[in-house]
Design goal:
Blueprint (H helix, E strand, L loop, with lengths): L12 E2 L4 H11 L5 E8 L4 E6 L4 E7 L2 E3 L14 H12 L3 E9 L5 E7 L2 E2 H7 L4 E2 L1 H5 L4 H14 L9 H7 L14 E2 L2 E2 L14 E9 L6 E5 L2 H19 L16 E6 L4 E11 L4 E6 L5 E5 L3 E3 L3 H4 L9 E4 L10 H14 L4 E5 L2 E2 L5 E2 L1
Parallel strand pairs: 1-4, 4-7, 19-22
Antiparallel strand pairs: 2-3, 2-6, 3-4, 5-9, 5-10, 6-7, 7-8, 10-11, 12-13, 12-20, 13-19, 14-15, 14-18, 15-16, 16-17, 21-22
Helix pairs in contact: 3-5
Length: about 375
């Protein structure tokens, strides 16, 4: 300590200089919680240079779960509304301060994505409460802090702070979503350490797709669902078709049963064993020895083995064909659920729970994804 030479400066390894180095170090840091660190530099409202003394590590750190308007990088450049305010707020609260971080992931530029705590408070929450950020729904819901972030955003909305200065609760109720005041120009705000200006023209969350449906069948082997969309038009069309369909097949002139194996995939009339009524059905496969066919009732989704004597030609296509009214049973799967298909006893319990809870009942489905076919995730 008495040496006239200045002490050697501590050197830090920059793990954000390449994506490969970031991924390797990220796997180490993700196993630790609330890592002590120091904010060396504030790059923007949500992007920091952070030093971790015990790891001799230097890294770019990005706040997860939020969008922050971009601040101007150069004196002559124009930033997004409230971008500079967010940057100044981060400077005041974090610059050269002791913090703690949790690392969750990395971005494509080698940034470390996660949670930064200042005085034991989630700094993303503080930005949201001041109206200097908005919640990025998808990434927020992947974290353990979703409720905290959404509550902080709502607090800023109620106080009409920052980007929510023109927030109108009535408009949100009417449109299903509300846009912050800065959204029309915030086309390149930072989200999870990436700039989304090149691929997005608005920071508004996607509008929810809610639909009234009836769960008509639950597959016991997979718990996949069959459902019907509920609307006055669709319900009336199906009721009218089924009324005419049953009247037609009660008539003696329409009582000719199938004597040979029907074609696989053919749409026919089949009698359902539980109520002895006729329904539209598709042939799935045939058992020639037993003279039965496995059929799927296309308007309800359930299936059963039906004797050939209880299978007939469909009838006039212009009255009962799928060109007149398409099959009403739609395939669906529950989002974010994986059922225990390898454990029959647990699978039976899951199916029983679903049957008791939703089968045959009208419910509201939140549609997350739809394939080009009729199936979707709800």
């Amino acid at each position: 300590m008495w040496s006239p030479k200045p002490p050697a400066a501590k050197t830090y390894q920059d793990y954000s200089e390449s994506l490969q180095k970031a991924k390797i170090q990220s796997s180490v840091l993700q196993r630790q919680k609330k890592i002590p660190a120091v904010v060396d530099y504030v790059k923007s409202g949500s992007r920091f240079t952070v030093l971790i003394p015990r790891e001799n590590a230097k890294l770019t750190f990005v706040l997860s779960g939020i969008r922050v308007p971009r601040s101007a990088r150069n004196p002559g450049e124009k930033g997004d509304p409230f971008g500079q305010e967010a940057h100044d707020f981060a400077n005041r609260r974090c610059m050269q301060r002791d913090v703690e971080i949790d690392v969750e992931n990395t971005d494509k530029q080698g940034g470390f994505i996660g949670v930064l705590y200042i005085n034991r408070e989630n700094f993303a929450k503080l930005l949201l409460e001041e109206g200097y950020a908005t919640v990025h729904t998808y990434s927020a819901e992947q974290s353990d802090h979703a409720n905290e972030l959404f509550a902080a955003e709502q607090k800023a909305k109620d106080a009409q702070k920052g980007v929510w200065k023109d927030y109108d609760p009535a408009a949100e109720e009417g449109d299903g979503e509300a846009l912050p005041a800065a959204n029309e120009t915030t086309t390149s705000s930072t989200t999870n350490g990436t700039t989304n200006g090149s691929s997005s023209t608005s920071s508004a969350p996607a509008k929810k797709d809610y639909r009234d449906v009836i769960i008509t069948h639950i597959d016991p082997s997979t718990c996949a669902l069959k459902l019907q969309h509920v609307s006055p038009t669709a319900s009336k069309a199906l009721d009218n078709l089924m009324s005419a369909f049953r009247t037609f097949h009660v008539s003696p002139s329409s009582s000719s049963a199938t004597t040979s194996a029907p074609k696989t995939g053919e749409i026919v009339a089949a009698k359902f064993s539980e109520d002895n009524e006729w329904y539209r059905a598709r042939i799935r496969r045939n058992d020639r020895d037993a003279k039965t066919s496995e059929v799927v009732f296309i308007d309800y989704g359930n299936s059963e083995h039906v004797a050939w004597k209880d299978i007939r030609p469909l009838g006039p296509q212009d009255r009962f064909g799928t060109g007149k009214l398409k099959a009403q049973a739609v395939d669906a799967m529950l989002s974010f659920c994986q059922f225990p298909t390898v454990k029959p006893e647990y699978m039976a319990e899951a199916e029983g729970f679903l049957r008791t809870t939703v089968e045959g009942k009208q419910v509201v489905a939140s549609v997350d994804f739809m394939e080009k076919s009729t199936s979707g995730n709800a």
